[in-house]
Amino acid sequence: MRYVTGIEAFNGTNKTAVTLGKFDGLHRGHQKLVDQICKYASSDCESVVCAFDMHRETLMTKRERRERLEGQVDWLIEDPFTESLRNMEAETFISEILCKKLHAAHVVIGTDFTFGHEKRGNAQMLEKYAGEYGYTVDVIEKERYGDMVISSTYIRDALSQGDVQLAERLLGYPYEMTGIVQHGKRLGRTLGFPTMNIEPEEKKILPRFGVYACRVRIDGKWYPGVGNAGIKPTVTDEHKRLLEVYVYGYEGDAYGKEITAQFCGFERPEIKFGSVEELKEHVMKDMEYGAKFFALQS
Known about the structure:
By secondary structure, the protein is α/β, with parallel strands linked by helices.
């Protein structure tokens, strides 16, 4: 897969099958769009995902998006949603961006996709100009979970309640975060349960602050674990977002290593305890919860 920042950096010469949107989670609804452009891909037609960066908190970092699309599509364009793009007339976007720049032979969008100045561009406009510019238009219906439309907002709401299992069903994969293990205050080691601290990227959404069963990848191997996502109010006033995770069965030195933690199940909200001893008592219960959670999964 080739990756570029900004539509102007795209230099493909073949015809393309293009899908456009925020793609801020690559959830099951987004995957329907990706699957459709892949059906059009051939030796003379390349699949292109054009993801607009809306400069807000996101379910997925740019790196995570690249990694999840790797091997699926030919091109990923990550385009900052600038004022010039926002104010571009919809007809100009079709002629200059979709057709002249991206060589679109097939355009695949969701039912609510809009573009151009004052969001005047939509599926109907794309279909209106399809014959003139020589592309086809596929308007893909929303994916549903029960009677609810799968959307990034729905997933954000699930995460805000700590319902990471619902989020996984909507995404089609476990919600996760990746980071470098940092040196902390070593309080966990002092209390008898050494932990690993990783910090999310600035715009990466953390689920509801609290304790979770986590699956943790270290050096390519997955381990069960239990972690606290939050700001550790009992031991610090820094209000720094962290995931502090205890990993069952890992005995190495992970400082400086990059690890990935998947959120598998919610136990309890983050609490500011009255003392370190009270914290230790609850952490012991948290570790029992994590052990039981993964014992039931096996």
